[in-house]
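FAQ: What does the model actually see?

It sees only this:
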Amino acid sequence: MSADTLCWTDIPVTNLDRAIKFYSAVLGNEVRKMSEAGFEYGLLPHQEQNASGCLCVAGDSGGNKNQPSQTGPLIYLSVEGRLNDAVKAARANGGKVLQEKQQIGPHGFRAVIVDSEGNRIALHSSAG
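And it is asked to produce this:
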């Protein structure tokens, strides 16, 4: 049995190159552009079997019918130890901040942003 409840996420985007630039800056780590069987996507950074995800072009041939949205599930992405820098990078790369950094009880800190594609995403760090 896996220790992670969340095992993968597809984040819908309309412009893959723009989204890769945005997420690489916000996460402070390279999002790699990949291609398999004619399907292009941006692979979010992760190590070994850690939970992760990818950026998928909305309505692409991969069967992804999702569209960027500010409603629905709120995905938390770890920016451990660099939450302030991640928020600055979001603003500098076409995103906007919906909710500035706030403490979430004993669970650390988060900021809620809208990415370059129109998705609502939470950025999380256990330290302020």
